[in-house]
Amino acid sequence: MRLFGGKKYSTIKVRKKDLPAGLWVKCPGCAEIVYKHEIESGVGVCPKCRHHFQIGWQARLASLVEQGTFEEIDADLVSADPLDFKGQSTYVSKMQDARRKTGMRDAVVCGLAAIGPVRVAIGVMDFAFMGGSMGSVVGEKVTRLVERGTRDRLPVIVICSSGGARMYEGMLSLMQMAKTSAAVARHSRAGLPFITVLTHPTTAGVMASYASLGDVIIAEPGALIGFAGPRVIRETTREEVPPGFQRSDFVLKHGLVDMIVPRPELKPTLLRLLGYMCNLPAGQTPAPAPVEAQPDSYAGPGHVSS
Predict the structure, then answer these.
(1) Which of 18, 59, 70, 214 minimizes the number of CB atoms within 10 Å of its CB?
(2) What are 79-104's pLDDT values in tens digits?
(3) d(CA 39, CA 71)
(4) Helices 171-189 and 136-151, interaxial angle, to 10°?
(5) 6/272 Cα distance (integer angstroms)
(6) Over the chain, what HEC string results?
(7) Nearest alpha-carbon partner for 43 in 268, 294, 290, 264
(8) Between these two residues, 70 and 285, which has the higher pLDDT value?
């Protein structure tokens, strides 16, 4: 205690470890400390600089589909260990760890839901599960989702986030590229819409297959999109890559995606597209809203748990 004018005042110092953990997040876009609740209530978008954080599949679905309409399909599929893969840790142990941390069985959740008045088949990938990698189960679930959409005459939407094919399953994971692409081709021949949304990051085998086959391909601001990452390309070619290389603005400029849509505007944009593609009456789709693309210098998304 210290005495000032005969009164006692406390000199207790508040230390960083005394503050509740997990309440604040440093935004990688603007380097500001932001209240985590503000980010979560804004669908994972920084309220100061509009930086897009990665979000989980539950938050993604909640932001897009009508409440109470989602019905998961093929939830019981789980990966085997066809190669009996062993390294510093086994494939089985890695899968068990990923399931424990995320509560998911694999890197994609698929089901049927409603977006506005439109019934859709929708799949959501989650990067938190082994980097959103595509193994046999992811390929099978996406294929079944597209085939269900074809059978029931439904539009199919896939929200993509992936580091590529899962190395622990070798050639079996690479073959998912052909299988999913064939399903999308059959869906297209049936005259049905297929829309993909590319979030950060969407790369490698997923980007080289169904992610790039959408009738309309939407990207989130600042997302990394491409086959190999910039570092791999730089080391392979011994050339410096251009500023903003493989970010969503760069790939939009070069024709790889059709539009960049900020996350809060994604649902009305999907509704509008579905209205055009499914011949809905004009009154059932929202009026277009202006969308501004982010500059090439955008810092790229970080992560916030849902």
Answers:
(1) 18
(2) 888 888 887 889 898 989 999 999 99
(3) 27
(4) 10
(5) 71
(6) CEEECCEEECCCCCCHHHCCCCCEEECCCCCCEEEHHHHHHCCCECCCCCCECECCHHHHHHHHCCCCCCEECCCCCCCCCCCCCCCCCCHHHHHHHHHHHHCCCCCEEEEEEEECCEEEEEEEECCCCHHHCECHHHHHHHHHHHHHHHHCCCCEEEEEEECCECHHHCHHHHHHHHHHHHHHHHHHHCCCCEEEEEEEEEEHHHHCCHHHCCCEEEECCCCEEECCCHHHHHHHHCCCCCCCCCEHHHHHHCCCCCEECCHHHHHHHHHHHHHHHCCCCHHHCCCCCCCCCCCCCCCCCCECCC
(7) 264
(8) 70
Bond from prior residue into 242 cis (ω within 30 degrees of 0): no
Backbone angles phi, psi at 66, to 5 degrees: -70, 140
Alpha-carbon dihedral angle through residues 178, 125, 107, 188, given to the nearest 10 degrees: -20
Contact present, 145 and 109 (Cβ < 8 Å): no
What percent of the chain is modeled with pLDDT above 90?
A: 45
Tokens of 183: 């399903």
Taking residues 224-246, what's their average pLDDT? Answer: 79
Q: Spell out the domains of the chain, with CATH numbers in brackets.
A: 55-284 (3.90.226.10)
Structure-token match 């994971």, residue found:
173
What backbone torsions phi and psi does residue 285 show, to the nearest 5 degrees? -120, 145
pLDDT bucket at 71, cuts 50 / 70 / 90? very high
